[in-house]
Amino acid sequence: MEQEKRGSFSGKIGFVLSTAGASVGLGNIWRFPYLCAKYGGGIFLIVYVLLALTFGYTMIVAETAIGRATNKSPVGAFRGLSHNNKLMKLGGWINAIIPILIVPYYSVIGGWVCKYLFEYIRGDVNAIAGENFFTSFITDGAETELWFIVFAILVLVVIYLGVENGIERVSKIVMPILVLLALVICVYSVTRPGAISGVKYLFIPNFKHFSIMTVVTAMGQMFYSLSIAMGILITFGSYVKKEVSIEESTKQVEIFDTAIAVIASLMIIPAVFAFSGGDESMLKAGPSLMFITMPKIFASMGFGRVIGIAFFALVLFAAVTSAIALTESAVSTFSDEFKWDRHRGVNIMAVIMLVLGSLSSLGYGPLANVKIIGMQFLDFFDFLTNSIMMPIAALAICVLITKFMTVEKLEAEVEQENHPFKRKGVFRFMIKFLCPLFVVIILVSAVLNVFGIISM
């Protein structure tokens, strides 16, 4: 009966677009360009693509196959495959809790995007580009809270509608629009005077910029960009029908995801070069690149307001699809573990989002003096989930497959309905040896970085 009640995607297109929607979020459009810029442009891109084709590919196949084989969200999947092993059950819960902790602070940043889109629609591009616009906004607790709630409501409404009517339908509409908008802004950006220097910086590798941190940062970015070890891919895998080829779908998600990351970089990096007269130091703006540097660039353009609206609409679409996936993973866990119906699960998630999200929302304003290991709430939740919990969750997935499920059973799941598993050799080597090594390196690097022992 569980099989019949569980939601499912209508087919491969629904799964690919929904998974791509989960993957293509602020990680690609905001985080990827500034990390790519900071860690050497072309050389970072090469390292990232190589990792996506090996590490990323392996983890997407693994998580999707675990979900489909068990027809469960992370906790149930880990419990079933490990025959109730206590350590593996903990691994399942870590996978399940990650999205519950990410979506509140992610929704705060989504609220910032809503605010900027609203201001571009109604306002003055020069005011938005002003020195103190962003700072005065995020320190105003009432306004950040309002926009955070607006974004959270957008996400929760889609989750209420379910898998096929909500997530899949929204993804099928939003993802093509997102690609179209990205291409329009990209063409506009690369045709600005001086922008060609940014294109060269992005695509021509300079080996002087290479360091071990290029590899570590690219590995960390993989978790953001491909939604690895967040419980999402296991949950979405449980909605995938047996006739859908997991390997083929993974390839399409990888291509879609990497293409959007490159297009986002082409929107931002050449525009920064054009705006700054080729000043590479402008690229080091980091997270403020989207909210401070880009508005300055739009203010200097002829169609600044139009491009600003298109840019922040694109970022909003990407943020919403990712937040939907994170919330769906949490709601699916509630349904499987506590037998709550969808509406109750969404209501509980709404309360969690409001409580934890408000801490992050108010963390730069009224709660600015409250810090955890020297970090504001938003930065702390980001560090806890992405630098600590996700590498542990990924390691748990590797152990689950190699020690409990067995690589052979996972391969058999991928090969169902006579689907070929072309990169079986790569998968086997990665899941047994390199993936566990990679996630340990990410975990250790992140911890050493936060305590100032190494600089990332």
UniProtKB/TrEMBL annotation:
Record CDD domains: SLC6sbd_Tyt1-Like
Any one GO molecular function term: symporter activity
Annotated coiled-coil segments of the chain: none
Keywords, ordered alphabetically: Membrane, Symport, Transmembrane, Transmembrane helix, Transport
Spans through the membrane: 12-30, 42-66, 87-108, 146-163, 170-190, 210-234, 255-277, 297-326, 346-368, 388-408, 429-454
Main location: membrane
Record localization: Membrane
SUPFAM superfamilies recorded: SNF-like (SSF161070)
GO cellular component: membrane
Superkingdom, taxonomy of origin: Bacteria
Topology in membrane: Multi-pass membrane protein
UniProt keyword Membrane, yes or no: yes
Family to which the UniProt record says this protein belongs: Belongs to the sodium:neurotransmitter symporter (SNF) (TC 2.A.22) family.
Record's protein name: Transporter
Source organism of the structure: Pseudobutyrivibrio xylanivorans DSM 14809
Lineage per the UniProt record: Bacteria, Bacillati, Bacillota, Clostridia, Lachnospirales
